[in-house]
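Hello forum,

I keep getting stuck at the same step: I have a sequence, I want structure tokens, and every attempt I make locally crashes halfway through. Rather than fight my setup again tonight, could one of you with a working pipeline run this one for me? It's a single chain of 138 residues.
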Amino acid sequence: MEPISSRANARLKAVRRLQAKRHRLREGLFVAEGEDIVEEGMAEGLLPVESFVAAERAPDETLVQRLARGGPVHVVADTLLAELGTLGHPARVLSANWSLVAGWRPAAIVLALGLLVTAIGMVRSIGPLIVKRLPGFA
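Reply #2:
Ran it on my machine without issues. Output:
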């Protein structure tokens, strides 16, 4: 695969925009930098939407294969990948991940609140019946 070598690449521009909070909130994504952080996220079940790996200082091939389970893996020239990161040293891996908080859109919040209200209503109406039937609560 030919590495991305242009600053004008659309995928790199999209990741660069995620440095601003308003874009992270709007897109519902955040960027994880560095092999350790990316691997910890994947160990917790957080698969990346897409990943970016260094061309010259490529990470371990098994990590790249695990990244590919979540989404496309782009090979990027090291200098461009270093520009994307905010760490004190250039990372060999960056991944864009869904944010658990920022990904909530207003419609999802309304749906979640509706389910919560329904669940509370059910507990209020059938909760006493359940408690009466439990041993020791009669």
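Confidence is low (pLDDT under 50) at residues 102-111. If your local run keeps crashing, start a new thread with the error log.
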